[in-house]
Amino acid sequence: MSPHRPVPESLALLTEGYAWLPDLLRAEDDTALNLRLLGHPALVVRGPDAVRFFYDERHVRRHGALPGPVVSTLFGHGAVHTLDGEAHRARKSLFLPLLEADAVAGSAEHITAAWDEAVPGWREQADVVLFDAVGRVVTRGVCRWAGVPLAEDEEEALARDLLAMVDGFATPGARHWRARRARSRQEKRFGALVTEVRSGAVRAPADSVLERVCRHRDASGAELTPRVAAVELLNVVRPTVALSWFVAFAAHALHRWPGNGRRLRSGDAAFATAFAHEVRRFYPFAPFLGGRAVTDLTWEGRKVPAGGLVLLDVYGQNHDERLWKDPYAFRPERFLERPPGRDVLIPQGGADARTGHRCPGEAMTVGLLEALSRRLADLPHEVPAQDLTIPLNRVPTRPRSGMIIRLTGAPR
Ligand code: HEM
Fold first, then answer.
1. What is the C-alpha separation between 391 and 339, in angstroms, rounded?
2. Given this model, what pLDDT does residue 13 score?
3. Tally of domains within the chain
4. Which residues pair with 44 in a beta bridge?
5. Which residue's alpha carbon is nearest to atom 38 within ligand 1?
6. Which of 14, 25, 234, 240 is an S-S bond match for 170, by CB 3.0 to 4.6 Å?
């Protein structure tokens, strides 16, 4: 980036990192607090009741809440994330099939097949940077599942762009501008694909994600413009590739606490689910979520005027000792003892995905993380010396090395 290019100021609040809101709340020994952010009054909340408060459309709206640089990299302009009310409900219907069991099973089938195709190549390499390797595997698998045509020689560039869009959303500087370029390249490419499908030049498999996006109609009855259709197609493909972060974390957990690998290899399905939930709870991904107050609001005696910011402390809630015993211990067993409460475990948002903004890809994420963690546990490997620190002032963070593994044998 040129040294004269302005740093988007709204990113500054994200670069404070994962400990920012939890530290402020700890200092107050409270679950809510008032702040001033970028010159605006803000209310920070946490806890299952606060989740319901935050997801009530009468309290919090999303339009105009997300910083421009986040929309320009992570979600895309006009994305479902930025809509409210009827417009949101109509657009969200496009994503609801992702919640169904056949989407969870279908995506896992294609992505584990892509993993199995990649393993022989990994065996020829001395070291495999798992974060990058999983990015390519998931890109191949999710495109096949979603009906998006992708030549083998295009896979690596697409994977790199999808990872860049996630990696650069919260950071001023080179990572941010790389993310913008990646998004603009892929919106053009996916937009052209939508136009080709609509003209009949490319055939989209019946009822595939590609076909549904191309024929979707908004609340007004109009079809999506090719650019917005591209944005929403990317809103399925891109976050699926973001599984790279969680798989790198799963590898980190298997290395630090090897007993988990033994239990995953035993084929205990309930344990695999619990392990996936604990990876999503324990490791940092989304630091917080934000919206704007629809009207003057009061929460636990704290006020925020209409238009003020309301922030839900996601990372803090997933580590709140009021909700979790030994929150900083990695213990999948906690989810065998008690299944995750809807508004308690919120790495992908809270409340109901059918009616609110909660992530519609959560069941897919859990299914894929279970399947890929089991594949990883079945893959004899060692973890050579490397920098495994996970810096909490980097958003999104990951093991600094990208999680390097060295294969020592054929999959079990
Ligand atoms: C929304 C996290 C995977 C599609 C969200 C939100 C979070 C999130 C925090 C915002 C919730 C809110 O604003 O209230 C994640 C993480 C993932 C993941 C950490 C795994 C690494 C997926 C997958 C898909 C997906 C696999 C699709 C296949 C979406 C969409 C939204 C969303 C479309 C917007 C929903 C709306 O605004 O109504 N996700 N997600 N995500 N996610 Fe995910």
1. 29
2. 62
3. 1
4. 33, 311
5. 357
6. 14
- 4 located within any domain: no
Give ∠ CA 372-267-140 in degrees, rounded to 5.
20
Residue with tokens 């994962």: 18
Which residue range is the domain that position 68 belongs to?
A: 9-407
pLDDT at position 37 over 90: no
CA of residue 242 to ligand 1 center, whole Å: 10
Q: What is the pLDDT of residues 318-330, one digit of tens each?
A: 999 999 999 999 9
Is 214 marked as a binding-site residue? no
Do the domain assignments include residue 59?
yes
**Which tokens go with 268?**
């205990």
CA distance 117 to 94: 31
Cα of 96 vs centre of ligand 1, distance in Å, is 12
Q: From the CA of 83, give the closest atom in ligand 1.
A: 37
Ligand 1: residues within 6 Å at CB? 80-81, 92, 95, 98, 235-236, 239-240, 242-243, 245-246, 285-286, 289, 347-349, 357-361, 364-365
Q: How many angstroms does the Cα of residue 235 sit away from the middle of ligand 1?
A: 8
Give the β-pairing of 289-293 and 60-61: antiparallel
Query: Interior CA angle at 159 toward 379 and 214, to 5°?
Result: 120
Query: Which residue has 């989209």 as its token pair?
Result: 204
Atom of ligand 1 nearest to the CA of 91: 38
The per-residue pLDDT of the chain, averaged, comes to 95
H-assigned helices in 16-81:
20-28, 48-54, 68-70
Nearest Cα residue to atom 1 of ligand 1: 359
Instruction: State the CATH number of the domain containing residue 172.
Output: 1.10.630.10
3-state DSSP call for residue 120?
helix
- Beta-bridged to residue 32, according to DSSP, are 45
CA–CA dist 100, 58 (Å, integer): 28
What's the CA gap between 103 and 90, in Å, rounded?
20
Query: One-letter amino acid identity for 70?
Result: V
Q: What is the DSSP letter of 315?
A: H
Using pLDDT thresholds of 50, 70 and 90, give the confidence band for residue 12. Answer: low
Q: Which of 142, 245, 348 to mutate to test the pocket of ligand 1 (most atoms within 8 A of CB)?
A: 348
Instruction: Give the pLDDT of residue 146.
Output: 98
For residue 260, report the distance from its CA to the centre of ligand 1, in Å. 27
Distance 295 CA to ligand 1 centre (A): 26
What atom of ligand 1 comes closest to residue 232's alpha carbon?
A: 33
